[in-house]
Amino acid sequence: MRPAFYPERTANKVESHKNSPSITQLWHRNGRCPENTIPVRRTKRDDLLRASSVKRYGRKKHKSIPMPLTVDSDLLNESGHQHAIAYVEGDRYYGAKATINVWRPKIQQTNEFSLSQLWILGGSFGEDLNSIEAGWQSDAYQATGCYNLLCAGFIQISNEIAMGASIFPLSDYGGSQYDISILVWKVQTKLMHLMISAACFSPFSPHACYKQDPQEGHWWIQFGNDYVLGYWPSFLFSYLTESASMIQWGGEVVNSELEGEHTSTGMGSGHFPEEGFGKASYFRNIQIVDGSNNLRAPKEVGTFTEQSSCYDVQNGNNDDWGHYIYYGGPGRNTGCP
């Protein structure tokens, strides 16, 4: 299967590809997968042993979605997750795109992780929330989950990219920057295919018939400009069947607060956003997919972080990068004990 429709770029928006060396995956050094197969990251014994239980392995923890409009201090402290994000809401969204530079932040504890991703959300911040999340993650492959192909649902079609496999090369502090582009979009139900059949042109029905695309409603993901990875079937969702109500871009860490101290697990590059290009982590060319299937710049972008002294976010806009954010931080420091 392939998506029937791709989002179209608006005429006045050209994405910047300057200073963007190509990124690959480490397993490509050992070969590629043949057609009609997909690469699958092997689950090893050590991966299972690091999980809290076999039942929990590969399943995502609840209450880890950033809640910029419904912040309750007790709930935030209970979740143990901290974020630095940009977000849009108040409209119908049919996808999102961004380019993210890739780092290997410090991870303090084996039950912690640091990720950078986009969130596509529908529903309310509770048990009835639907989310699609895509990006890069640094961890001990333990605290994550229904991630990649570990649970039924996501249908992979690409034989080039292995979900959960290592990305190479990585950005250097003060040196070369390497980034990845991610696009998630919905094949909208209003888009139809023209179907010509004998029955449609019979004397009893002398007109062309229109048939709904059998792929309609699915959420597709593309990595870079060349790799359509696969899709989430529409039947998986209750609140994302038509559109999303919020899009988020940014970072997330788990703060286990060992011995009452904030974790030193880094977000992004592990440096604060004010350090800028080459030192801080970024999302650039941030876009949303609108109801006309066009990629366009978002309006009224907000930002959110629970503790700006630990992890922070700053947004901006220019001709080269469009809408962008710098985000991240080191975690524990003199201002974040």
UniProtKB/TrEMBL annotation:
Coiled coil segments of this chain: none
According to the entry, every stretch annotated as the Neprosin PEP catalytic domain falls at: 75-337
Instruction: List, alphabetically, the PANTHER family matched.
Output: OS07G0205500 PROTEIN (PTHR31589:SF24), PROTEIN, PUTATIVE (DUF239)-RELATED-RELATED (PTHR31589)
This chain belongs to which protein, by name? Neprosin PEP catalytic domain-containing protein
